[in-house]
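RECORD TYPE: inverse folding
INPUT: structure tokens
STRUCTURE:
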């Protein structure tokens, strides 16, 4: 497949990446999503919108974020050279602000007064609360009680920024239930609000919109890597839950001779309820208004999922990832909790960079590749910093002595 026109060709007008995507909505939300689609299609080609978003990225977010060569970690793992795209240095500490500022700017254009969203690890919630404060909008964040307990620092940040945090107490009390709750709230407030989905999931146009706003990650990284080394990386790696940070990195390299890897959470193992490795074990189905690969029971309901990373424990995956898998352009693998925690401490101790647990999944996969004898260079998207995970890691793993 020729990927030179890929971004223009996919998704199609109905929001499909091949056989995945679309918009499966209750009747009352069809006009609301049509309004969002029309507004986005209007402003995404507007020089004023693009100019303002570029200004925000440079002056407020601190972009471009750098690419960093992990010399010590590379030496530890063999001869393969590991690099990081440092999205942890983006304002608020993760890639999430890239699309949240875009969605906030879209909300202002549409005359909306409130931003509504779900969050798992809390980084999307913090980023959206930041965008709401910047644009003078109200903000309502739905978050599972389990994640609220695990991610207390991010909950505090959201509240300091002025957001209302709504605890979700049903089901597994994690990301999937938070999405359910946020959708329900949006259905009652859509006239004055916009639902700012936190990943490349949900009904069209959100997988496309979030992909487009996150594309800056790969565009920057490709240019920076060539400037640093004179070459393209041999491989690029990113973690995948819903898949926004991965889509952001992958897009700029799709037409290059570069191997691309998405990394899912294998958690405690392959039993149902012990992982969230959707593309490894899932099958086609519909969840939260879109069609993709899902972890599901015989009756089609979502299976219970688990990951040490609150931002990855989702039973679905973005439709574009399912499409790229089927095309054979991206290889999707996985790492366990133990491999992830090992990478968390190895990167911290050898490079002075404490990654988000989500990002540590991608680092762990790159380390496995290097130790297995991969040659050349690997560029990893360090999608977020680990401040939010410190209390959880220390409580459950101490200070990492067993991993060193």
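DESIGNED SEQUENCE:
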């Amino acid at each position: 497949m020729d990927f030179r026109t890929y971004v223009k060709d996919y998704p199609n007008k109905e929001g499909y990446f091949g056989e995945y995507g679309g918009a499966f909505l209750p009747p009352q939300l069809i006009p609301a999503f049509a309004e969002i689609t029309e507004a986005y299609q209007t402003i995404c080609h507007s020089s004023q919108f693009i100019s303002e978003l570029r200004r925000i990225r440079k002056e407020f977010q601190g972009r471009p974020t750098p690419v960093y060569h992990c010399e010590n970690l590379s030496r530890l793992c063999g001869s393969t050279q590991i690099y990081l795209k440092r999205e942890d240095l983006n304002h608020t500490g993760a890639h999430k602000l890239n699309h949240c500022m875009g969605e906030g700017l879209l909300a202002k254009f549409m005359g909306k007064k409130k931003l509504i969203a779900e969050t798992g690890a809390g980084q999307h919630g913090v980023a959206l609360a930041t965008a709401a404060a910047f644009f003078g909008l109200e903000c309502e964040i739905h978050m599972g009680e389990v994640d609220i307990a695990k991610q207390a620092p991010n909950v505090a940040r959201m509240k300091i920024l002025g957001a209302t945090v709504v605890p979700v107490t049903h089901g597994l009390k994690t990301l999937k239930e938070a999405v359910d709750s946020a959708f329900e709230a949006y259905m009652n407030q859509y006239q004055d609000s916009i639902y700012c989905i936190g990943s490349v999931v949900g009904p069209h146009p959100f997988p496309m919109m979030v992909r487009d706003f996150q594309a800056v990650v790969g565009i920057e990284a490709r240019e920076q890597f060539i400037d640093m080394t004179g070459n393209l990386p041999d491989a690029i790696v990113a973690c995948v839950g819903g898949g926004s940070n991965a889509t952001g990195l992958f897009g700029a390299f799709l037409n290059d001779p570069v191997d691309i890897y998405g990394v899912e959470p294998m958690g405690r193992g392959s039993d149902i309820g012990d992982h969230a490795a959707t593309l490894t074990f899932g099958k086609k189905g519909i969840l939260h208004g879109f069609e993709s690969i899902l972890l599901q029971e015989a009756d089609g309901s979502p299976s219970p999922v688990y990951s040490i990373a609150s931002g990855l424990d989702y039973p679905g995956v973005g439709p574009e990832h399912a499409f790229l898998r089927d095309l054979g352009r991206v290889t999707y693998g996985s790492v366990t909790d133990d491999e992830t925690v090992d990478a968390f401490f190895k990167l911290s101790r050898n490079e002075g960079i404490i990654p988000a647990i989500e990002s540590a999944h991608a680092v762990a996969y790159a380390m496995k590749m290097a130790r297995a004898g991969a040659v050349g260079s690997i560029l990893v998207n360090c999608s977020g910093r680990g401040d939010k995970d410190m209390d959880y890691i220390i409580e459950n793993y101490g200070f990492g002595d067993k991993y060193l």
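NOTES: The chain has two domains: 24-58+96-207, 62-94+215-403.
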